[in-house]
From TrEMBL:
The lineage of its organism: Eukaryota, Viridiplantae, Streptophyta, Embryophyta, Tracheophyta. It comes from the Eukaryota. GO terms for cellular component: mitochondrial outer membrane. Belongs to the eukaryotic mitochondrial porin (TC 1.B.8.1) family. Transmembrane segments: none annotated. This is VOLTAGE-DEPENDENT ANION-SELECTIVE CHANNEL. It comes from Salix purpurea.
Amino acid sequence: MKKTSTDVTATIGTPAIAFGADAGYDTTSGSFTKYTAGISVTKPDSYASTILGDKGDSIRASYVHHLDLLKKSAAVGEITRRFSSNENTFTVGGSFAVDHLTVVKAKLNNHGKLGALVQHEVIPKSVLTISSEVDTKALDKNPRFGLAIALKP
C-alpha cells in the first residue's frame, strides 16, 4: 500500500512578531505525523521564541541578545521541556563573528554536553562547517566531530 502524506506550513506576522505552524498528515492512516506551532518576537538587539513541538511533547523557549551594534557577538539561552520523559534541558551559548565570512559558536547544557563549531563562507552563499561535541561528564567517551558543506547556487 502506498503511503500518501500532506505537509502544510504557515507563517504570519510583522517584523516585530510572528506566528507559525507546521503539520504533516498521513492520508493513508488518517493520522498526523507531526505538528508544531511557535511564536517569535524580534527587537533591534534581541529576539525570543517559544515553540511547541514533537506533537505537543516538548516546548522550547529561547532568547538571543546581541552584545554589540554590529551584531558580531551574541549570548544565547534556551530551556527545553520534554513532557513524556519529564526532562528539562538548559543551554547557554554564544557566537562571535570573527570577520564577515567566519563565525565561531559554542554551547553548554546542564547535562554536560559542550559543543562548538566554526562556519566559514567559502564562496558566496556556500558555508563550510566544522563542529565538535564532548560530554564533559563522561570524558572517557570519544568526542564527536562533524564536517558539513552547504552549497547554494
